[in-house]
Amino acid sequence: MKHSPGYGELLMLAPLAVLMVRGLRRFLDLPTRLARWNKLLGYIWVPAVVLFVVAQLFNIRSPLLSDSYWLFVLLVTGAVLVAVRDYRPARTLLLALAPFLLHHLAEFIVSGSDGQLPKRYDDALDTTQAFAIIWLITFVIIARNQKKTLEKERLQREEEEKAKRLIEAQNVELERLVTERTLALTHQAEELRSALTELRTTQAQLVQSEKMASLGELTAGIAHEIQNPLNFVNNFADVTVEILGELREEQCRPERDPTLEGELLDDIDQNLQKIHHHGQRAASIVKAMLEHSRATTGERQPTDINQLADEYLRLAYQGLRAKDKTFNATLDTNFSPLLPKVEAIGPDLGRVLLNLFSNAFYAVRQRQLRGEAGYAPTVSVCTSQRDEHVEIRVRDNGLGIPEAVRQKIFQPFFTTKPSGEGTGLGLSLSYDIVTQGHSGTLTVESQEGEFTEFLISLPINQGG
């Protein structure tokens, strides 16, 4: 077998040791892991030079010098691996080096002073040397693969850390943006809340204005309509006073006529009944005005649609006549006698009818003002039952409504009347009262220059 490296090979082993240390430094990243050891390993060649100089000075020719230096290099390498044993590839290299180091240590121990090995150990040491070399190469490859794996894991961790830092930075930025956006939205919400409060106040004022406008029309109609029953009450009261005077005169006569007294009492009774009837008529008109003017409670009650429509038709007519005493129109009513009562809010539904009637009279009056020959203003009202709904048709032979206008007629603040004659809320409020307040429908049909007809359809029972 080969002997251990001899004396002449000392200078050859020094560069080999330097190369091995350089590879070890790079593989184990010693500048980072073991900075002080890394500096000392830079002088791994110094012992070889010292031994060489000593051998030259003292003329020492023993191969043990090179064997000692090589063993020293292996021991230093093992010490370094032990120092960085927490690093998995270092532990693998230590495991790879152990048999090789033990083999050379055994050779060094059993070698003679001349560096020669006894014959009896040749086979065993050759076998162990081959095994140690194969073992070393195998585990060096394993350590190399481990390092690659760890390097990949390190790079992956760095990427993950980088991504994590990026996400954290983005989260901080997003939190800042969310905070700014939240403050902006809060400010906008406050502005919108303030604007909404202002809008609701304005809306309430406009609705109240529209109610007062309709109340004005109603009041004018009532002033004219109530004159008839009041006149009847006053006339019958005067006649009754005269009859009572005649009755007292008859009672004062020595010879009383029972037949005449009975006739006078019958006349008084009839007059009082007529006074009561017309007094009730006046009271109902006043009640209608009060119900129309006060805020609704939203409570539905069985309502006679025929009576409600007839009442407000005449009041709307008299309201317009109060403005223009020259105006006259034909009132055409066709009320179904078998019409059932409807669960409705009377004052609200009365406002709807008053608005539709007022618009109808306004339309026929405008057409009448054009001076068409043979034109007779007519407003007709028809009630009927269709399945579980009651229908009210309000038709006039006025100017009609153009197609473009019909599409916007129920929009708030839209009006075809001149400025100062309408708020544009009448039909909009009427539509809301019918559709939302009574679960019904309000539609319109018209032919320009011919007619306009509004159709109200109300469910008889709100639960149906």
TrEMBL record:
* Catalysis: reaction(s): ATP + protein L-histidine = ADP + protein N-phospho-L-histidine
Q: Which UniProt keywords apply?
A: Coiled coil, Kinase, Membrane, Phosphoprotein, Transferase, Transmembrane, Transmembrane helix
Is Transmembrane found in the keyword set? yes
Q: Which SUPFAM superfamilies match?
A: ATPase domain of HSP90 chaperone/DNA topoisomerase II/histidine kinase, Homodimeric domain of signal transducing histidine kinase
Query: Which range is the signal sequence, renumbered to this chain?
Result: none
Q: What is its EC number?
A: 2.7.13.3
Residue spans making up a coiled coil are 143-180
InterPro entries per UniProt: HATPase_C_sf, HATPase_dom, His_kinase_dom, HisK_dim/P_dom, HisK_dim/P_sf, Sig_transdc_His_kin-like_C
Picking any one GO molecular function of the record gives: phosphorelay sensor kinase activity
Q: What is this protein called?
A: histidine kinase
